[in-house]
């Protein structure tokens, strides 16, 4: 499993798993949507994004449009957009549409604040 899964497990958060560095199958996207609909908030982790996992950013934007609280964790200076700029565009759209931003260390406290 990857670091996002490990973080979710550490905080007792339900996570949908898919093989890393492969395109998300339709059933993974549907399961992620179901889990996220029931969540109090959605955290967009500072993971690398390529064509295979852009669906996560799109899902976060759809949930934000429905009024779901979305926190985008700061990426720092690391290279993370491996989708030819599409991930950056999606992230920019999330922020324009009202997603919150946060630091990695501050997310647990914000989870507790609600």
List descriptors.
114 residues; 5 helices; FAD/NAD(P)-binding domain; two-stranded parallel ribbon; alpha/beta; globular; 5 strands; 45% helix
Protein topology:
Elements lengths: L2 H8 L15 H13 L2 E4 L4 E2 L3 H12 L3 E5 L7 E2 L3 H11 L3 E3 L4 H7 L1
Parallel strand pairs: 1-3, 2-4, 3-5
Helix pairs in contact: 2-3, 3-4
Describe the structure.
The structure is a single chain. By secondary structure, this protein is an alpha/beta fold. The chain has a single domain (3-113), classed as FAD/NAD(P)-binding domain (3-Layer(bba) Sandwich), CATH 3.50.50. The protein is 45% helix and 14% strand. The protein has helices spanning 3-10, 26-38, 54-65, 86-96, 107-113; strands at residues 41-44, 49-50, 69-73, 81-82, 100-102. It has a three-stranded parallel beta sheet, covered by helices on one side. It has a two-stranded parallel ribbon with strand order 2-4. The longest helix is centred in the first third of the chain and has 13 residues, at 26-38. The protein is globular. The termini are far apart. The model has no long low-confidence stretch (mean pLDDT 87).
């Amino acid at each position: 499993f990857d670091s996002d899964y490990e973080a979710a497990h550490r905080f007792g958060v339900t996570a949908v798993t898919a093989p890393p560095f492969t395109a998300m199958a339709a059933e993974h996207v549907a399961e992620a949507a179901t889990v996220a609909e029931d969540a109090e908030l959605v955290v967009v982790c500072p993971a690398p994004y390529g064509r295979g996992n852009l669906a996560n950013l799109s899902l976060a934007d759809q949930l934000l449009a429905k009024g779901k609280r979305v926190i985008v964790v700061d990426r720092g200076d690391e290279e993370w957009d491996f989708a030819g700029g599409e991930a950056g565009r999606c992230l920019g759209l999330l922020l324009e549409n009202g997603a919150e931003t946060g630091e990695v260390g501050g997310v647990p406290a914000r989870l507790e604040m609600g």
